Amino acid sequence: MPDMSQPELATLAQRLDRPVVLVGLMGAGKSTVGRRLAELLGVDFVDVDEEIERAANLTVAEIFERFGEEHFRDGERRVFTRLLDDSAGKGMVIAAGGGAFSEPTTRQLILSRAISVWLDSDDATLAERATRRDTRPLLREGDPREKLAELRRRRLADYGAAPIWVKSGRGAHRKVALDIAKGIERWIG
Ligand SMILES: Nc1ncnc2c1ncn2[C@@H]1O[C@H](COP(=O)(O)OP(=O)(O)OP(=O)(O)O)[C@@H](O)[C@H]1O
Ligand SMILES: O=C(O)C1=C[C@@H](O)[C@@H](O)[C@H](O)C1
Ligand SMILES: [Mg+2]
């Protein structure tokens, strides 16, 4: 299947009447590939982890340490509610945090008001990518690969609710972004 051309990407962007939300485990590439996808489509990009950090003036790790995961999920739900209100009817790309789609209210919000894409890779690749920087509180204890495998088991049914699945393999970010665009085009029909 050939990659989409720039005019085809521009046409797809014009047809988007909802934001695209990338979901999936840590290290899948939601933030980095998501930014590239937005560039290819010529639409805005927002990273929800970064939005939460900006609103709290704390890093994700600091929020987990000081207030706990539940507090972080509350902030995440509020940020998603605002973003999806602001972006209604508009094509844009949103990178979710890895656990957002496992919070039932946030998942329902995304499913009903956005096009969700499950960006996935094998656990070894995810663990290698997600531990390049020590910013992920859920991977700070124990073996990252085992933790990711456990999160996959727990979250599989949630991620599986996304209508589009794209493998984020060892190809370049651009290649994965083009695979997502193709997946969206096919899904829109
Ligand atoms: N397809 C890819 N090829 C090579 N490297 C990749 C690919 N996708 C992501 N990476 C790299 O993996 C690392 C993690 O990617 P990224 O931060 O985008 O993951 P994420 O899904 O946003 O994770 P989190 O859920 O923790 O926010 C980055 O260094 C990124 O450049
Ligand atoms: O998978 C998760 O639960 C997380 C992923 C990151 O994006 C951050 O949202 C945070 O580190 C939690
Ligand atoms: Mg990210």
Describe this structure in words.
- The protein has 189 residues and is of the alpha/beta class.
- It has one domain: 3-Layer(aba) Sandwich (Rossmann fold), CATH 3.40.50.
- It is built from nine helices and five strands.
- It has helices at 6-15, 30-41, 48-56, 60-67, 69-86, 104-113, 123-130, 144-159, 173-188; strands at 20-23, 44-47, 92-95, 115-120, 164-167.
- A five-stranded parallel beta sheet has the order 2-3-1-4-5, sandwiched between helices.
- The longest helix is centred in the middle third of the chain and has 18 residues, at 69-86.
- The radius of gyration is 16 Å and the shape is globular.
- The two termini are 16 Å apart.
- 39% of the residues are buried.
- The model has no long low-confidence stretch (mean pLDDT 96).
- The structure holds adenosine-5'-triphosphate, (3R,4S,5R)-3,4,5-trihydroxycyclohex-1-ENE-1-carboxylic acid and magnesium ion (MG).
- (3R,4S,5R)-3,4,5-trihydroxycyclohex-1-ENE-1-carboxylic acid is lined by residues 26, 49, 60, 97-99, 136-138.
- Substrate binds at residues 49, 73, 98, 155.
- ATP binds at residues 27-32, 136.
- It is found in: Cytoplasm.
- Pathway: Metabolic intermediate biosynthesis; chorismate biosynthesis; chorismate from D-erythrose 4-phosphate and phosphoenolpyruvate: step 5/7.
- Keywords: Amino-acid biosynthesis, Aromatic amino acid biosynthesis, ATP-binding, Cytoplasm, Kinase, Magnesium, Metal-binding, Nucleotide-binding, Transferase.
